[in-house]
Amino acid sequence: MQITGHDGHTLEQAWAQGPTAYLAVSIPNFFMLNGPTGPVGNFSLIDIAELQWGYIAQLIELVRSGQCQEVSAAQSALEAYDVARKEAARKTVFGSGCNSWYLDAEGVPNTWPWSQQRFRDEMAAPKLDAFVLRCMPRGVCRQGRAPLAISPSRNRWSAPGSEIRARRAAPARGPRAPSGPSAAAWRE
Predict the structure, then answer these.
(1) Which pTM value belongs to this model?
(2) What gap in Å lies between CA 140 and CA 92, rounded to an integer?
């Protein structure tokens, strides 16, 4: 199956150096369940898929509801996630010198290196600053002074400009891990 993004790049090209995915669910312009870097050897695949689907569904809802035309993981978020993931993965039992199919070409485990609770927390709600949201044609997007923000209870947003990086609204259920696609946000 040939998968091609809106910019003409194929999945094969994106994964030329090895498969990876932001939070194991997304690369720019593509979503998947149980993707590379996921906790496939650590937790139940059914639980993982259900959590991932809930996460992806929240992003799809932005498009379905007309709030944006496209939603895509930012390349910078994917890169920062992968740097932090590899650093943490080297410290797991899979990175301790064993032979395993989880190891990539560099000998680094290509799996989720953190706890199940952290995975659940990450899947609870997308950090929209890790995504690029593209607005619909003029007149559809609601214009406002505030940077793009999603209200978890109202699922509404406003933004100046037609293509922006989103900023995550404060969660209704309490604090989340630091937002932003920097590697520092991924360190525990």
Answers:
(1) 0.73
(2) 48
Q: Kindly state the helix (H) or strand (E) to which residue 124 belongs, with its residue range.
A: helix 116-124
Please write the tens of the pLDDT for every residue from 57-72: 999 999 999 889 889 9
Strand partners, 4: 10
Q: Distance (Å, rounded) from C-alpha 49 to C-alpha 88?
A: 22
Using one digit for the tens of pLDDT, what is the confidence trace for 10-36? 999 999 999 999 999 998 878 999 999
Q: Report whether 112 contacts 24 (CB < 8 A).
A: yes
- State which fold the 19-186 domain adopts: FAD/NAD(P)-binding domain (3.50.50)
For residues 48 and 40, the answer to whether their CB atoms sit within 8 Å is yes
Strands (E) across the chain are located at: 26-27, 30-31, 70-73, 131-134, 163-165
Say how far apart CA 97 and CA 88 lie, in whole Å.
15
Neighbour count for residue 34 (Cβ, 10 Å): 15
